[in-house]
């Protein structure tokens, strides 16, 4: 039942994308082969550039919504590029014998780190057996005895001479608590003072001289002892050094030859040699008690003992395999500071925290060095210090390990300052667009370090890519997921759902996750029916089941309307009352519901009261829409008279927040209805925003809004008058459910496109809106004329009221 | 004397000063543990030393070779008393650590005379001696013509092993084979050595050059050894495994 005035209802063909099973020529989608990467040329180009460009700082940020396949595509492109890159170097940390708190990082050809570690372990094992044997050898013992003998013999000979001469001089050397006492003797007995006094002066003088001489010789012999001790120690040390040098040189020779081409290793081995020789005694520690195991010494893993840890090789990065692996592609799902740049671990010893170079652990940057590192932007931004550390590494081109506790001075213990490792890595950040835009706006380093943006499309337009390529992509998703193939009707339904996902009949979704989920659910229902292929019914079932699962809130809303708890009319007419439409989005569910919008007008000073805003339930965009419609009112009617209107607008029975401007057309129409006293047809609902010229502008969620009002009308019984007014600009977005299309096809429901507010007036009132004539007036009987007349009347009353007020004041 | 009439079995560590006693304390403890004896300390305030202290023209030199002045009888007696206290304290501590019975006495007289007076037949005497140089690497057993099976050799081998020293045995050539065989049966210390005993004069000359860690003398044999001369020659702690009698 069409109005004599107003826009014509849309034909059925305009209500959804024209995808039909006949458009597909395959029997099942198993015949189709393609790629998942359609419509992503921009992003793929950026990723390939990031993967292949050798200049630093061309790291990439992959923008896109989760489920767009961005991670899978990033992995695939990087893996392909990595295969063509050489394997990066191995890295090890070794002891710095001069400064143990500054471990030395050594770069090695790929695959050599583990070899060096094993070679050093074998060296220590070998020396642990060889050095004790060397020092236990007859050769060493003989030479040592020779030193001992030569050392003591000289002293002993001197002491013997002193004692011999003392005896010859009749002088005794007595050992006393106060040292030695030298005294004359007679007949082998110490001479008493009495006997001494009885001697002649010559005899006394001779004895005194003998005593003095002996004293001096004894003192000289004793004073020479420290010097001899020192020389003895030096001789023994020289012997030990010579023995250790011989043993170490023999053992280390093979190792040096194996790594002769690597200067850093050669330097390290020189330092190891020197330290081994200097500290050969650690190989001579006896294995007693618990340390002595049940195995023969030769089979013991000596290198694992703590005292040999200084010679260990801490392999930080080791490229294993046969050399065909290419560069690494590392993904770090938990990019904490430690997982990113590595960490220094500590062990508790006697209540103190200690560490050494073997406790340096690598991070993702070490493992990815020479290749690619994939990080989630949200994760790294939410980990303390991680983003800062990543930027520092990229900026300085090296990985320096430090701990946040040290940085914040939270711990005070002996720590390490390991050599930083040179860094050559391409970092790929994955994240939603909001992170990219925020970083670009707020972090001045970001643009410099991440020069490439790989922006993944959320959709493709149907015109830019043949439906064949998209169908092939669907076929690949099904194949990758191990699902049944689709028949052409099912493919058409998938296309329809894809349009629904984008909310646009001219666009197809590239949300691979959502498509994959839908296909898997359809596959499930198809399998439960025992079918070999996925048919349209299975897709339909999957969609219906999804809506049912997520439909509790929608059903509650509809039930409240149908039970007239929420007052929504779907027939009849009423002045100043209109059915607006809104979309609720909760979780992954979107649905539309009608709501009643009412307007009241009277004489005033040009104020439109937005009750939602006054009660602070209206959002800023809603308020903007209100001000725009005021602009329209002010310019469309009675421009030669003061605006003498007071109007109020409210969403009835709305107790939550309201935002968006998609109801601004409804609000304007409700005011015009109230002003002109022309009733509005309640069998229609309307959505659309309006500008100051009265043009109707596109809104979002058009499909859900139409379906929301349709479901209420259908539940009450379709009359054929019912329908929804939508902006003409939204017609291309229509991708309505089959139930709506069937009702329209049967003439039971209407979708009316509006281009201007006049279209809305005429469709809702059945009365001509009216265009201003050459005389400056709207046609008699038109809605606009009635509205303008009312405004003029308000202005006249206001003027009269003002004049009366002045007279009263004059009289007084 | 014990109640049974058998005197207690002791290792007597004797010296005329604390320095000598302390230098032989470890050896005495090892020996006491090895033979299962108690440890007795004996500091002899040697009359000869006191006589020398009275002498106006005697000279004193410290163990490090510095001249010491103003040595009088009184200062020497005070030094003996101080050494006795220190010796006793250290001895008790070492004996307690090694779980040994202990005793101590400080007596005036001549060292060898006092030893001859107080030692029993089963006692072992250790005469302390502080070496000017650090400890030597060998224990020396003077066996002479004594049969190696008499127990002296076994004692010396065990003591050398416990002290991580090699053993040098002076014995007449007819015992060489048995001694070398005993070396082979032993374990722990290698490089033990047999040397022929060719009379006292030869022994004294060799000892003067050897700088041993300790000297073990089997006294009470047919040819009594001049103990004082051996001590002066070896200049190291001396262990007397028989009666403390002075030979010629």
TrEMBL record, chain B:
- Kindly provide the name given to this protein in its UniProt entry: Universal stress protein family protein
Question: Which organism is the protein's source?
Answer: Albidovulum litorale
């Amino acid at each position: 039942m069409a109005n004599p005035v107003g826009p014509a209802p849309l034909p059925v063909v305009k209500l959804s994308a024209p995808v039909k099973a006949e458009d597909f020529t395959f029997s099942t989608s198993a015949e189709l082969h393609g790629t998942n990467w359609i419509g992503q040329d921009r992003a793929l180009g950026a990723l390939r550039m990031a993967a292949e460009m050798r200049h630093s700082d061309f790291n990439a940020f992959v923008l896109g919504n989760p489920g767009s396949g961005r991670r899978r595509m990033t992995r695939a492109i990087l893996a392909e590029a990595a295969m063509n890159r050489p394997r990066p170097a191995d890295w090890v940390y070794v002891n710095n014998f001069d400064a143990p708190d500054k471990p030395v990082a050594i770069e090695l050809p790929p695959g050599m780190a583990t070899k060096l570690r094993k070679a050093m372990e074998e060296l220590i094992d070998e020396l642990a057996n060889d050095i004790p044997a060397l020092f236990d050898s007859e050769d060493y013992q003989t030479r040592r005895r020779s030193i001992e003998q030569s050392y003591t013999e000289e002293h002993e000979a001197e002491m013997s001479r002193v004692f011999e001469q003392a005896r010859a001089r009749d002088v005794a050397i007595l050992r006393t608590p106060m040292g030695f006492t030298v005294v004359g003797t007679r007949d082998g007995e110490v001479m008493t003072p009495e006997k001494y006094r009885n001697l002649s002066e010559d005899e006394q003088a001779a004895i005194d001289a003998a005593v003095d001489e002996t004293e001096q010789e004894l003192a000289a012999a004793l004073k020479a002892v420290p010097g001899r001790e020192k020389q003895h120690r030096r001789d023994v040390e020289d012997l030990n050094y010579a023995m250790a040098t011989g043993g170490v040189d023999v053992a280390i020779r093979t190792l040096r030859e194996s790594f002769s081409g690597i200067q850093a290793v050669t330097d390290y081995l020189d330092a190891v040699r020197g330290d081994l020789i200097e500290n050969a005694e650690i190989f001579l520690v006896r294995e007693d008690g618990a340390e002595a195991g049940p195995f023969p010494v030769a089979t013991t893993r000596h290198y694992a003992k703590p005292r040999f840890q200084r010679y260990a090789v801490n392999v930080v990065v080791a490229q294993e395999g046969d050399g065909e692996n290419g560069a690494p592609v590392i993904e770090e799902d938990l990019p904490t500071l430690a997982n990113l740049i590595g960490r220094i671990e500590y062990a508790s010893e006697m209540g103190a925290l200690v560490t050494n170079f073997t406790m340096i652990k690598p991070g993702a940057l070490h493992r990815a060095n020479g290749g690619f590192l994939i990080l989630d932007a949200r994760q790294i931004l939410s980990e303390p210090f991680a983003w800062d550390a990543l930027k520092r590494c990229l900026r300085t081109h090296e990985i320096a390990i430090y701990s946040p506790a040290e940085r914040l001075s939270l711990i005070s213990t002996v720590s390490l300052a390991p050599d930083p490792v040179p860094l050559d890595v391409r970092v790929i950040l994955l994240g939603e667009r909001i992170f990219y835009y925020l970083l670009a706006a707020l972090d001045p380093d970001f643009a410099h370090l991440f020069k490439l943006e790989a922006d993944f499309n959320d959709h493709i337009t149907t015109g830019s890519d043949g439906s064949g390529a998209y169908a092939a992509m669907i076929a690949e998703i099904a194949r990758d997921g191990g699902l049944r193939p689709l028949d052409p009707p099912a493919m058409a339904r998938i296309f329809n759902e894809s349009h629904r996902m984008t909310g646009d009949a001219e666009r197809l979704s590239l949300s691979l996750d959502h498509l994959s989920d839908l296909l898997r659910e359809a596959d499930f229902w198809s399998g439960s029916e025992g079918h070999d292929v996925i048919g349209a019914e299975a897709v339909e079932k999957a969609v219906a089941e999804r809506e049912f699962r997520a439909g509790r809130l929608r059903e509650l809303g509809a039930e409240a309307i149908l039970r007239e708890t929420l007052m929504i009319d779907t027939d009849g007419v009423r002045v100043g009352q209109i059915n607006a439409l809104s979309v609720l989005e909760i979780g992954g569910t979107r649905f539309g519901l009608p709501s009643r919008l009412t307007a009241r007008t009277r004489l005033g000073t040009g104020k439109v009261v937005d009750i939602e805003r006054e009660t602070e339930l209206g959002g800023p965009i809603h308020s903007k829409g209100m001000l725009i419609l005021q602009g329209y009112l002010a310019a469309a009617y009675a421009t030669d008279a003061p605006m003498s209107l007071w109007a109020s607008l409210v969403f009835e029975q709305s107790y939550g927040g309201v935002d968006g401007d998609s109801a601004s057309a409804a609000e304007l129409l409700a005011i015009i209805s109230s002003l002109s006293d022309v009733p509005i047809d309640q069998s229609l609902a309307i959505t659309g925003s309006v500008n100051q010229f009265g043009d109707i502008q596109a809104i979002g969620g058009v499909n859900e809004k139409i379906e929301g009002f349709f479901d209420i009308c259908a539940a009450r019984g379709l009359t054929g008058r019912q329908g929804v007014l939508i902006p003409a600009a939204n017609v291309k977005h229509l991708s309505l459910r089959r139930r709506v299309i069937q009702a329209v096809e049967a003439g039971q429901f209407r979708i009316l496109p509006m281009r201007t507010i006049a279209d809305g007036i005429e469709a809702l009132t059945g009365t001509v809106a009216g265009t201003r004539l050459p005389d400056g007036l709207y046609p008699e009987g038109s809605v606009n004329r009635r509205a303008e007349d009312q405004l003029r009347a308000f202005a006249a009353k206001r003027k009269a009221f003002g004049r009366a007020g002045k007279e009263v004041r004059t009289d007084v | 004397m014990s109640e049974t009439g058998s005197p207690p079995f002791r290792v007597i560590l004797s010296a005329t000063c604390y320095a000598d006693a302390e230098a032989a304390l470890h050896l005495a403890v090892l020996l006491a543990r090895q033979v299962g004896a108690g440890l007795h300390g004996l500091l002899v305030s040697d009359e000869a030393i006191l006589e020398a202290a009275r002498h106006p023209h005697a000279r004193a030199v410290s163990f490090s070779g510095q001249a010491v002045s103003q040595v009088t009888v009184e200062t020497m007696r005070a030094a003996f008393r101080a050494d006795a206290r220190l010796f006793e304290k250290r001895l008790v501590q070492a004996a307690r650590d090694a779980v040994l019975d202990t005793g101590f006495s400080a007596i005036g007289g001549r060292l060898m005379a006092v030893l001859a007076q107080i030692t029993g037949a089963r006692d072992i005497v250790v005469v302390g001696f502080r070496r000017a140089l650090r400890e030597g690497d060998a224990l020396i057993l003077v066996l002479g013509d004594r049969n190696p099976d008499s127990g002296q050799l076994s004692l010396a081998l065990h003591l050398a092993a416990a002290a991580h020293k090699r053993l040098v045995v002076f014995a007449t050539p007819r015992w060489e084979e048995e001694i070398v065989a005993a070396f082979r049966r032993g374990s722990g210390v290698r490089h033990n050595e047999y040397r022929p005993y060719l009379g006292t004069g030869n022994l004294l000359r060799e000892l003067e050059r050897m700088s041993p860690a300790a000297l073990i003398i089997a006294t009470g044999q047919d040819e009594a050894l001049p103990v004082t001369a051996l001590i002066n020659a070896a200049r190291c702690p001396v262990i007397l495994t028989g009666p403390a009698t002075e030979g010629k």
